[in-house]
Design brief:
By secondary structure, the protein is mostly beta strands. It has three helices and 15 strands.
């Protein structure tokens, strides 16, 4: 009996140790819905609950509403995790919890742990540049096959058009200049504030865009992507 108990304890400790060693990027969170994992999170925004019993929010990979993952917590944040919520702004942290979907975006509610990452881990480059495309990235020519799905799209930018009035959309034409483009990225709002990028600087560059693909006038597009990265 003692041997069985010992083996059981050893197995549990092994599982915990394994979970602590392995972590996914926030970009991959959508593939782990229903699973409890460690996630490396680049915190780009925090919002503290204004009333007792309400949720605190940490926005990962972008500011609200362009985050790619949300961490929501109820209760006394410092008591639970040993740090102030506001102090996490702009930092990279490790979060352990069960991934769920809320309004088509992954989130972790009341994570079991929030810690600093190990020395070998770094957060994905969410707002500037990246060396390689995330897994499962599709080519813009394939976008029509993924209508209704949120996915990374590799875009060869061949034209841009800036909004002439506030509140009007900016356009990024992919594959060829307008009107021969194969895919369109539509952005409403301040490009620099949302993605830390200048619209005019994207022409003739390769950009990774994450968002939900839809059809507009029988052409695939992503409107207000949650993430945009320049690929080196």
């Amino acid at each position: 009996m003692k041997a069985i108990i010992f083996l059981g304890c050893f197995f549990c400790l092994f599982q915990v140790a394994l979970a602590q060693e392995e972590a996914i990027s926030a970009q991959e969170a959508g593939k782990y819905v229903g699973k409890t994992v460690w996630v490396i999170c680049d915190i780009q925004g925090v919002r503290e609950a204004k009333e007792a019993g309400k949720s605190h929010y940490l926005n990962v990979g972008g500011k609200f509403p362009n985050q790619i993952l949300t961490i929501s917590c109820t209760g006394d944040f410092k008591q639970k995790y040993g740090t102030d919520l506001a102090s996490l702004q702009g930092k990279t942290v490790r979060v352990f919890g069960k991934i769920a979907m809320y309004k088509e975006k992954p989130e972790i509610r009341n994570p079991e742990k929030i810690t600093l990452p190990t020395q070998t881990e770094t957060a994905p480059k969410t707002e500037k540049t990246a060396q390689v495309a995330p897994k499962d990235t599709i080519n813009a020519k394939e976008a029509r096959e993924y209508v209704g799905k949120s996915i990374w799209v590799k875009c060869e930018v061949k034209g841009t058009r800036e909004a002439r009035e506030e509140g009007k959309p900016h356009y990024i034409n992919v594959g060829a200049p307008y009107p021969n483009h194969v895919f369109t990225v539509v952005v409403i709002g301040d490009m620099r504030e949302k993605y830390d990028l200048n619209l005019s600087s994207l022409k003739d560059k390769t950009v990774l865009v994450y968002g939900k693909i839809e059809l507009f006038k029988d052409a695939p597009q992503i409107k207000n992507p949650s993430q945009m990265i320049v690929l080196k």
